[in-house]
Amino acid sequence: NWEVVRTKSSLRPRPRKEFAGVLYKGKYYITAGTVGRSGQSDELWCLSLSNMKWQELKHDSTKRYNHRMWAARGKLFVLGGRTMENGFDPHTAEHSIDDFHSYDIEKKTWSKIPICGDKPYDISEYCVLPIFCGKEGTEEPSAVIVWGGYSALD
């Protein structure tokens, strides 16, 4: 049976859609998305599953939605998505983002990561699959597969 789980803090993220979320080491992280009529978000939030309290972390540099996020080696990785920061129509692929950022959980800092070799262009609404090839019981993916989605080339 399903049950409603309540958080234990008055501080919590605004309702949103088209955000990215990942579970990592007992915490659930969400970033960005669209929030009501006010548009897009660049917020990063963390829900501790041990005490069910939300904490707002440092914001990303770009408001985005329809992006994806995964976690490894103490970092959150965010790739692509879409933006309306320049007043663009949110339903056209021309406004997808081609950037790749990481958030260092311990240092609480964002960094832009240069992409080497072939890259998936500016991409949104894609699938990401972390690959776990390490010892049994390790929580860290050794690679990720990115496929599908939309780009400005479509």
Automatic annotation (TrEMBL):
The yes or no answer to whether the keyword NADP is present is no
Q: Which Pfam families match?
A: Kelch_KLHDC2_KLHL20_DRC7 (PF24681)
> Mind listing the UniProt keywords for this protein, alphabetically?
Kelch repeat, Repeat
Keyword Metal-binding found = no
Q: SUPFAM superfamilies under this entry? A: Kelch motif
Q: Which residues form the signal peptide?
A: none
Q: What is this protein called?
A: Uncharacterized protein
Which organism is this entry from? Answer: Ditylum brightwellii
Taxonomic lineage of the native organism: Eukaryota, Sar, Stramenopiles, Ochrophyta, Bacillariophyta
